[in-house]
Amino acid sequence: MSRGAKRAATREESEETRQTILRTAEQLFMEYGYRAVSTRQIADACGLTQPALYHYFADKQTLYVEVIKENTGKTQSAMERIVRRNEGIAERLRLIVRYLYNTTQHDISQMLHDIQHELDPQMRELLNQLFITGLIAPLASIFEEGIQTGFLRHPSMGGLDATNAAYLFMSMLPRFLSRPPLTVPEHGPSHASRHGLKIEQAEMLVQVLLYGLAEQGVGERHQVETVDSDHTL
Amino acid sequence: MSRGAKRAATREESEETRQTILRTAEQLFMEYGYRAVSTRQIADACGLTQPALYHYFADKQTLYVEVIKENTGKTQSAMERIVRRNEGIAERLRLIVRYLYNTTQHDISQMLHDIQHELDPQMRELLNQLFITGLIAPLASIFEEGIQTGFLRHPSMGGLDATNAAYLFMSMLPRFLSRPPLTVPEHGPSHASRHGLKIEQAEMLVQVLLYGLAEQGVGERHQVETVDSDHTL
DNA sequence: CCTACCGATCGGTAGG
DNA sequence: CCTACCGATCGGTAGG
Q: What molecular function terms (GO) are annotated for this protein (chains A, B) (predicted)?
């Protein structure tokens, strides 16, 4: 084999190793958190020695930042693709929930905690911006459309503005306690698909976000209970 | 001073020191997580040397477990008191949100992460049970009442069962990104209290949970979209 | 409740 | 990409 061929192969392998490190680090960081994952764990899982990592990434923090950049980039692409689809608000929200459930099994709040508490202020600011422009903004654009078209309640009528709706949406995603929070209720001994009630988790979540838990037009009267503010005189 | 008086004072001081450690450890653990808080940090914040902690608690894990026990116990009392109040479902939920916002500024999902990943299986099981009986159960009893009285949509009609509703409720609580997710929208240059729209965060959250973001009876038709299951044949 | 100290593990570097 | 190694910090113990 010529030197040229050998070097090309080495370059490819090097890039492959880099990708392996990124994927492995992502899994570990997202499951256990930045602090709890050691550089030796990552190296072991890649079949490398720990110092070898420092050939590919300057330090642990840089590796973490690259992981988040990669992850956020992919998610942003997928979300913008979904946002532009020719579907209703609800359906596009369902698609986003399914995408996030399938790709990131982790709790996103852990990632945010690490960004706030374990990183340099500079990196923190960078990743916060990535999070907002990559995840919050596409989501908010859907909610904004819903508000403009009158499908969603206007902020001045007791609704949420688009950005806050996006944050609330994100906060509803995590599986609580590592066990799925939204299991389908089994009523009676018959199979779940009996009454045509097998509602998927993603759909259930969007249902609640859009229409709430209350029976329509029944029970207590609080619907758009606009608080008269000037109590305090 | 007699020996007896001195010894009594010492015993009181000892208990006081123990409480100081518990309060300090709670703040640190809840803000930064189990792993990120060192026993030396806790000791420093209490004005003690690090080995002194081991006079009061067998080890770091035991201290953490005691913190959670104390915390959960107080919260359980408060929640059960609120549950028994003579108020509507929505108002009691608002009171619970306010209580949790005022007492625990932290993200509860971090506590759950630490319980799942940083503790012995035995302690994990214990604290999971405490979490369920202390926080989920009281909340679920409110939702169950709402379902029984017909105020909340029945699980067989596309609603959530009481336990899952409780989990969802808890997951909606955290302030996202350490910044409040539900800021009140300011519309126009006028003061926020202009149109009588100053809706408090706790109330806003309960509003969304109960009635959703959608305009009532407007836009897409998905209200109780019961999925016909036998698509796959 | 202190001083002194332990073994283990951490992130990172030197040098090849 | 490895071996060898560094200083710092961790949770915890000994002994008083």
A: DNA-binding transcription factor activity; transcription cis-regulatory region binding
